[in-house]
Amino acid sequence: MEYLDKFDPAIAFFCRILYCTCLRPGELIKLKIKDFNLDTRFITIPLSISKNRKSKRPERIYISDELFKLLSKQKIENFSPDLFICTDSLQIFGSVPFGRDTPYKRFKKALAKLNLTHKGYVLYSFKHFANIIRLKENWTLTQIMIGNRHSSIAMTEHYLKDLKDESSLSNLTIPMI
Description:
Elements: H1 2-7, H2 9-21, H3 25-28, E1 36-37, E2 42-45, E3 59-62, H4 65-73, H5 102-113, H6 124-136, H7 141-148, H8 153-159
Antiparallel strand pairs: 1-2, 2-3
């Protein structure tokens, strides 16, 4: 993230939003500033953007304290509501959204500069990592599922599959029957 902050702040911002919200990259590239309401502290995902086609109304994601600070630091409220939250230039907000593969290509470029291309990192790694952190912070599976806007616990468990390598049963108790 330090490298991205220095050489590609727009991608650093993009990745931090992915981490904080667990949005899908394809949804995030289509969001505009007007979709981020700092007063109500919700991001509205328009039906035309959402992957979840079963919903009859736009989905909403809570803006956490961390994300609120990130958005406030960028002074989002000073920009036109019709600008895209992530733009195809090196600027963070703009009138031209990221192309479908632009964030990934720029992220891969940063990984190459850091000799991290063979580690398996992708943009969804931020979502995976966020879910593991949430579980470690005692979020329930249901809360994580809702935070990801998943339709099932099974889908959420997919994002937690790497946690088994870090899990220890040695400090857990089993109540006697």
